[in-house]
Amino acid sequence: MNPKNFVTELKRRKVYSVAVAYAVVGWLLIQVVTQVFPPFEVPNWAERLVIVAIMLGFPVALVLGWLFDFTRHGIIRTADLSSEARIEVSSPADSREKSIAVLPFADLSPAKDHDYFSDGIAEELLGALAKVDGLRVAARRSSFWFKGKQAELNEIASKLNVGHVLEGSVRRDGNRVRVMAELIDACDGFTLWSETYEREMHGIFALQDEITRSIVDALKLNLDISPPPASRSTEAYDAYLHGLFYSDKSTEDALRRSLEFFQRALEKDPKFARAWTGIAKAWLWLADAYVPPLEAYAKVRDAAVRALRLDDEEAEAHVYLAETKRILDWDLDGAEAEFNRAVEIDPNSTPSNYFIAALYAARGDREKALAYLKRTSKIDPASLWVSNFACEIYRYFGLYDEAIAAGERALQLDPTFAHYGEPALAALYREMGRFDDAIALYKKAQDFTGRPGFGLAITYARMNRRQEALQTLDAAVAGWGYRPGDAIAHVHVALGAHDDAIRELERACEQRSSSLHGAGIAPEFAPLRSDKRFRSILQKIGLEPEKVFAATGVTSSSPEPPAGS
């Protein structure tokens, strides 16, 4: 460990604080001993023994300070500077800006079987606070990343770039719900507000509003909450929270279970718009990975349309409808309009900013793509999903320093990339000629998923290891239920088989592959840019080839999106 890192580690482990505290207390004890022992005729050797013991205890205290820490969880062993601890954000929270992270609430139910409910209450509060003007709220994926981790509040606030933290617990026993919530100033650790509520289940909506109002009052902000629809069923709401819990997981079984709960919510309350939004979300994440796009996105569109008929203010439903316009209709202008509507309704939503950034990147609107990408990263700094995406987009634009920072952050969040496709950092390493590093990352992901990725085949092809590339391609195709043509085309381009690549891209058009719009800007397809057939495919799906190609060779800054956009 170099001296600079050692000093940083001493500060992180609070060894300096222990040293100062021990020195002060030790000096006071020595003063007491020297003043009190003589009047009581305590032998001099006892006085000297106490002083020596205090002096010898100093290095022991330093060692214990290095190994252990006093936390709100009790005395725990200080964690090594692991990948989790190294996750940093680029800038501290603006002291003039009100900002908050809502941590997942602890489940204190007798059987510990209401995790979905405690998570759901926290997420509902997060959603309500996100609508407050003048308050920036860390996104769910980032806040919930800390679930089950013994992290200090100041560490959480630093990583999420917020000034306040809301934490709490939920105890549900039958139809009785007890909620404890505490708002903490992350700068000094003081509690600004704390309250415990006990309600019947039918009063849960009013309780959420009451907590939200209390938090806003404590932060000295203004809030205008509309009362929840009187017809909303608590049984429907409980089923909805169950669905939400499973829809945030990425396995096929979990996503299909979420569909069952969302449907159950609609059976209890047919006018519950967010249940339809949940169905659209589940089908969106089932698409491509588990279900062919033509089948899945038709269901996404149906659910999104139904949600918006009930409530046009459902921002996520506009996002999912936009995706169906992009993928099924190749209507990029229509998709952009829906994305903009989503951002207008909920400017702090990760999906709203994430998907519009991807659209602008695909279209070659570099400035807009980078602006929304920057905002997404600020909203959701501890999200593997966002960091991996940022690495990919920065790579497309040739911004390798930014891409490495985002990719390494994603790697720290989850070294396996188990549920988010392939690690974008591996593709970046490949473009930089770091083939061994790329292969190591791809194989790490493969060890978890049990199937090789197309990126590994591309890497072997770029290394002129043709036989291994073909074998890996065959294994990757066999390992997927649905095989996106553009993913296979990537490998054929790297192998120099351009006719095969064009054939697979045409098949991707027929499939309505959701990733096809990235072909124009992806550097892997650069060898095809002079091919008229390739340009024709891009035009067919709504892109302007020259504009897209030009975007990868321009350097510029990444401004903030226009105010109110």
Description:
59% of the residues lie in helices and 8% in strands. With 565 residues, it is an alpha/beta fold. The strands form two sheets. Strands 3, 4, 5, 6, 7 and 8 form a six-stranded mixed beta sheet that branches. Strands 1-2 form a two-stranded antiparallel sheet. A hairpin with a 5-residue loop joins strand 7 (176-185) and strand 8.
| Major beta-sheet overview | 6 strands, mixed
Low-confidence stretches: 79-95, 223-231, 554-560
Shape: globular
- Rg: 27 Å
**Mean pLDDT, as a whole number?**
82
| Fraction in beta strands | 5-15%
Give the end-to-end Cα distance, rounded to a whole number of Å: 46 Å
Percent range of helical residues: 55-70%
> DSSP helix count?
25
- Strand tally is 8
Structural class: alpha/beta
Secondary-structure map with pairings?
Layout: H1 3-12, H2 15-36, H3 44-67, E1 68-71, E2 74-77, E3 98-102, E4 106-107, H4 115-130, E5 135-137, H5 140-143, H6 153-160, E6 164-173, E7 176-185, E8 191-200, H7 204-218, H8 234-247, H9 252-268, H10 273-286, H11 293-310, H12 315-328, H13 332-345, H14 350-363, H15 366-379, H16 384-396, H17 400-413, H18 424-431, H19 435-449, H20 454-462, H21 466-479, H22 485-494, H23 498-511, H24 532-540, H25 545-551
Parallel strand pairs: 3-5, 3-6, 4-6
Antiparallel strand pairs: 1-2, 6-7, 7-8
Helix pairs in contact: 2-3, 4-7, 4-8, 8-9, 8-10, 9-10, 10-11, 11-12, 12-13, 13-14, 14-15, 14-16, 15-16, 16-17, 16-18, 18-19, 19-20, 20-21, 20-22, 22-23
Provide keyphrases for this structure.
single chain; alpha/beta; two-stranded antiparallel ribbon; globular; 565 residues
